[in-house]
Amino acid sequence: MVQVTVDPLTRIEGHYRINTEVNGEGVITEAQSNGLQLRGFERLLQHQDPRDAALLSQRICGVCPVCHGITAANALDELFGVAGEVPKNALVVRNIHQGLNYIASHAAHIYVLWGPDLANPAYRDILAKYGDVGNAVWKELQGRFTPLISQLNGTSYPAGSSYLGAIVEFRRLHDAISLIAAKMPHPVLQHVGGVVYSPTVADIGQIVSYVSKTMEFVEAFTLGISPDTWVANTYKASSPQKAANFVLNHLRELLNKSLTSKDFSHSAGWGDVPLFAAFGSELIGEKLLGLPISMKMDLAGAYKDPNKIGFLSYGVFFKPEKGDGYDPTSPADSRVIPSGYMDGNFKLEKFDYKKISESTRHAFYIDNVEDRPPWNGVTVPEGDPGKIDYTKGSASRYSWAKAPNYNGIPCEVGPLARMIIMGEPLVTGLVKTFQDNGYYPVNNYTRMVARMQEILVLYSELMKWLTQDLEAGGKVAVHTELSMAKSSAGMGLWEAPRGALGHWIATGPDSMVTLYQAVVPSTWNLAPRNSQDIPSPVEQALIGTKISAAENALGVDYSNPLGILHTARSYDPCLACAVHTIDKTGKHPDYTIKVL
Questions:
Q1: Which domains can be identified in the chain, with CATH numbers?
Q2: Distance of CA 73 to CAs 94, 277, 355, 419, Å?
Q3: Taken in order 120, 121, 127, 129, is the CA torsion positive or negative?
Q4: d(Cα 275, Cα 271) in Å, to the nearest integer?
Q5: Orientation of helix 272-279 relative to helix 240-261, angle to 10°
Q6: Which of 55, 142, 289, 586 shows the smallest number of beta carbons within 10 Å?
Q7: Farthest-apart Cα atoms in the chain, separation
């Protein structure tokens, strides 16, 4: 048995590592998700003015502050008793604010945080087995997804065209957010009872211009066809089967031309999504399209026991047609992307926030109750350094992240969960295609396709909010004062780009905060085991996954653990959300892949 550790997990900041045990056949048999630092924001917000939560909670993370600001504002709306009065215009502004952030966040993950692994040299050697066609595909992967600093066999390579282009669009979308929220990150738009700024006609026109410009990049680089054409035939398709068939037929048309010409470039119509869709999956690429080789990502990161996993969405984006106010419990019919719970066999149930709890059995916290609902949460960190040990195995405590559950079951949250609960036609069609062919439909491949598709879903809705639903200069807030929060409680249910995000707040007789709990997406996805010792989603997805590229196609390579990197990063971990402090000791290395 070989121990393989990746630390830190992401390319943007640390605090998390993945520990695995791998057998002689290169299959992961054991996995631990280690949160290495205390987040602590629940403690920082104690005794604060609750109105500050919409600003202070954003400091949990510089990647996704928008969702924390909106979720906190939602919790404050209920705390102050005004959720039913928030003006429609304010709700639409919240939608626009979050929609812009979704597209920017997904673009950053796809191109900057996850995509560079597609340019891993292991794929050069795998694709080379396909002769000139494989070499042409590798040239595209390297030319599109290579990160800023890259060397291969002592030769430096320029950053990929898609990678660089996505950074420009990320900046453009941040500029769009800043038009209505003053700055990004940590904008100052959200407030109890609404928002603090009413966009003007000029603001709206400029944001539409920014979004349209970003969609030019999507057409030229991401899709290879018009976003409107893609949306009309997938998100707006009359059935899941028609949506899936559209993509499959589009891929067949591209292959009919390129298998002869050996041209897989952007100019030949091969957007980044079609390239990944064709060559990323064994089922789609090899079995349905007849390719002799693929990256086999649909075989990695799948769940082995459907009874130990669920899929959860709190619901996100208010429906403008509902008018003023909203229900803080997030009924499914009140959000554009609905709330819901789906079990591991894809049976949909109504969402019930009362079924949410967090376990501390395997986390470094002191609590005589192992499972608590967040509205009664306790965050008391272990204070004895001698009891903080990440090396004692899965039966011990090994993480600073708690373990959220829904009715006792760990849940995957994020774009794939949202899209299948929503019944989005393309993702639903893919799920059925995988099921019909004997594959478990949740895997590294479908997670990434769902994230790509959600960008197009949000583009369609965002343009409607901007051009039809938003009233320039309209009312955006109701009056509140601190005394309205006396001895009260509030809950904010929302969806970050990475998944279900909830904030819970309570106050005392002086209206100051007595309880604050934030249950964040990366806590759901990258938790330790729960109180029943069921592994978290990422741990379940890693166990049974092969360590090396394309199902160990080149043999077992413990030093290049693409099975870990693809799988754990497919959840788009935003690790600062789950654990957050600053290491001033300099003791932790910048990056470690350790093989023992």
A1: 2-355+407-595 (1.10.645.10)
A2: 10, 38, 23, 25
A3: negative
A4: 6
A5: 90
A6: 586
A7: 75
The strand pairing partners of 6, in sequence order, are 18, 593
Q: What's residue 575's pLDDT? A: 61
Measured distance CA(306)–CA(322) in Å, rounded: 36
Give the pLDDT confidence score for residue 569 in this predicted structure: 95
Kindly state the tokens that stand for 301. 């990161």
Count CB-CB contacts under 10 A for residue 391.
9
Give CA separation, 527 vs 400, 429, 519, in Å.
9, 30, 11
Give whole-number Cα distances, 269 to 280, 294, 314, 586, in Å: 17, 20, 37, 48
DSSP reduced 3-state for 107? helix
Q: Angle 88-108/161-181 helices, nearest 10 degrees? A: 160
Residue 495 backbone phi and psi in degrees, to 5: -130, 115
Contact of 81 with 423, CB cutoff 8 Å: no
> 368 burial class (0-12, 13-18, 19+ CB within 10 angstroms)?
exposed
Instruction: Please identify every stretch of the chain with a pLDDT value under 70, giving residue numbers as ranges.
Output: 12-14, 575-596
Among candidate residues 201, 58, 71, 7, the one with its CA nearest the CA of residue 494: 71
**Beta-carbon neighbour count of residue 201 at 10 Å?**
9
Q: Transcribe 377-398 into DSSP letters.
A: ----B---GGG--S-S-TTS--
Residue 366 confidence (pLDDT): 94
Chain centroid offset of residue 330 CA: 20
pTM of the full structure = 0.95
Beta bridge partners of 403: 359
Q: What is the pLDDT of residue 13?
A: 62
3-state secondary structure 292-315: CCCCCHHHCCCCCCHHHCEEEEEE
- 282-291 CB contacts, 8 Å cutoff, 24+ apart: 283/433, 283/434, 283/437, 283/439, 284/248, 284/251, 284/433, 284/445, 287/437, 288/248, 288/433, 289/248, 289/251, 289/252, 289/255, 291/130, 291/255
Instruction: Give the span between the Cα atoms of 313 and 483, in whole angstroms.
Output: 33
Which pair of tokens denotes residue 356? Answer: 């949410």
* Bridge partners (DSSP) listed for residue 495: 500
Q: Are strands 513-519 and 592-595 parallel, antiparallel or unpaired?
A: unpaired
The DSSP symbol for 511 reads S
What one-character DSSP code corresponds to residue 408?
T
What residue type is 282 in one-letter code? E
